[in-house]
Amino acid sequence: MVDTTPLSRAVDHFADRLRAAPQSRLQRGAAAEALEAARELARWAQELERPGAEPRIMPDAGMFAAADQLSVAANDLAVVLSADDEVERAVRVIEEAQKRAGV
């Protein structure tokens, strides 16, 4: 079993920063970055769970839901990851999105 603690820490940090961010920061792109990262992680999880199936796109539930969507997608992915390098890749996705979001 792979240790997904680094992924949990990274997503918790980013999600906490998003929840604490002012609305103006979310509107300037932080929420969009989080949603895009969530969509990427969700797509990846679906590909691992159902190879070859058409992935469903995570809907935009609004800027105030972006942190929760990111958390859900990362937690879903953590369940199906099977290698340390996959965890490292997922952490990079989150950290890079957080940098672009500026939070």
What does this structure look like?
The protein is mainly alpha-helical and 103 residues long. Helices cover 74% and strands 0% of the residues. The chain is built from four helices and no strands. Helix 1 runs antiparallel to helix 3. The longest helix has 27 residues, at 23-49. The mean pLDDT is 97.
Question: H/E series, N to C?
Answer: HHHH
Share of residues in helices: over 70%
Spans of at least 5 consecutive residues whose pLDDT stays below 50 are none
Strand residue percentage? under 5%
Q: What structural class do the secondary elements suggest?
A: mainly alpha
Overall geometry: globular
User: How many distinct beta strands?
Assistant: 0
Please tell me how large the radius of gyration is.
13 Å
Largest sheet features: none
Name the average pLDDT: 97
Count of DSSP helices?
4
What's the assembly state of these chains? single chain
Distance between the termini: 32 Å
Brief rundown of the structure:
The chain has helices at residues 5-20, 23-49, 66-80, 84-101. It is mainly α and 103 residues long.
List the SSEs and their pairings:
Layout: H1 5-20, H2 23-49, H3 66-80, H4 84-101
Main features:
single chain, 103 residues, mainly alpha, 74% helix
